[in-house]
Design goal:
The mean pLDDT is 95. The strands form 2 sheets. Strands 2, 4, 5, 6, 9, 10 and 11 form a 7-stranded mixed sheet that branches. Strand 7 and strand 8 form a beta hairpin. By secondary structure, this protein is mostly beta strands. It contains no helices and 11 strands.
Length: 126
């Protein structure tokens, strides 16, 4: 059974850092583009970043560009989201998602992705 599990969330002060992990099981993640999304209370889910199946291309939303870095370790079936210089507006539940793609660039549209994790809470507050 294909499953994605996020971890690494928590409470951090503004300006701090967290690293989220997305661990895949039940499938070979290097055949899949992986995206990170977030949803704040009362807001729609929005795309944050994505990485292609090969890891050769990445994409970032303008709101996180220069602060967040996505990477993957296909040997570990894991994708990471390093989040630096965190701001209160980054507070949200963060989800990872997967779509089967061998080629092409990744996008951060929710409709593109078929498989979703349960999310991990990130709270940025002093």
């Amino acid at each position: 059974q294909l499953q994605l599990v996020e971890s690494g969330g928590g409470l951090v002060q503004p300006g701090g850092s967290l690293r989220l992990s997305c661990s895949a099981s039940g499938f070979t993640s290097d055949y899949y583009h992986i995206g990170w999304f977030r949803q704040a209370p009362g807001k729609e889910r929005e795309g944050v970043s994505c990485i292609t199946s090969s890891g050769g291309n990445t994409y970032y939303a303008d709101s996180v560009k220069g602060r967040f870095t996505i990477s993957r370790d296909n040997a570990k079936n894991t994708v990471y989201l390093q989040m630096n210089s965190l701001k209160p507006e980054d507070t949200a539940v963060y989800y990872c998602a997967a779509v089967y793609r061998l080629f092409g660039r990744c996008v951060i549209y929710t409709d593109e992705y078929r498989y979703w994790g349960q999310g991990t809470q990130v709270t940025v507050s002093s």
